[in-house]
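Example 3.2
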Amino acid sequence: MKKLITMLILFFMCIGYSQDPPLKLGVAGLTHGHVGWILSREVQSDINMVGIVETNTELAKRLSEEFGFSMDIVFNSMDEMIKAVKPDAIAAFGNIKDHLIIVQGAAPKGIHVMVEKPLATTLEDALKINNLAKKHNIQVLTNYETSWYETNVKANSLLEQGTIGELRKVIIRDGHKGPKKIGVSNEFLEWLTDPELNGGGAITDFGCYGANLMTWITKGQIPNTVTAVTQQLQPENNPNVDDDATIILTYDNKMAILEPSWNWPIGRKDMELYGTKGAVYSDNPTQLRLRLSKGYSDYTEETFLLPERDKPYDDPFSVFANVINGNLILEPFNVYSLENNLITMQILQAAINSAKSGTTIKLETN
């Protein structure tokens, strides 16, 4: 009996010692509308927010009152925050152009980084980020809301199982009425509609979702060609950037149509996969429909109502912590990965160039 008790004590001690301590997380910027995801996150054992970089004191005070963090952890620069709190990781919640600057400040110190989509404003910046990550052996993840959708995972699983046959066409639609119309903060709107700070308008803000998902679905295939057109349908609200785009990607045996827009009457992030036997519709985060062909126009339809993704995939910060701690090894070309998002940026850069030049851009597919 004593031997059994001793073994149980040792077992529970091992469990206690094997648990990773909370990662110290710094937050770089507060202007991104998604920053509430970390500021409102319930206390968990994986990540502890220890510092914030924000030069807009008024904004910091406003969010401090809303979310309850102390102004004592707010700093004016990355160097100041890193020196004071020594973070293990940094989450970027400012403009997209600053992603490179954040990685330049973090990588040499071995600090991991997660940015909000897209990875960068240009392919040139994305390649610099990649070089820094490889040189200093850090993780750089890119967070997309659609990474959390169980419907996308189910759709891809049905495709891989051969349920809808060989993939022939993908249609991905993302967007909303436009940042001003949905009432984003002035600080967010200011850089979202700046072509330098955001890389473009809807073509980058929402075009990245489809490019990211296609790169995941195709396991890292680079499209043969990229053709894009953009329009500005709300010049009064978005005077310096596009607010509507269509991007066509061609591959050897399939194609994709991406429709990012700030002109959808209803916010959406949905995906349709069309195969030789049927189609899958990811309508939203929880509803998926499967149609299988019967003859010319008849079909069977099954609707799936799905839960949130299992832990740690239900929360991007949990994914970030588990990847850093080595508890989670993500699949090649997964939606968070640097290798995926380099191709995503290659597609976005080609789309921007295509829209500007009015030509189809051919890519080196190796």
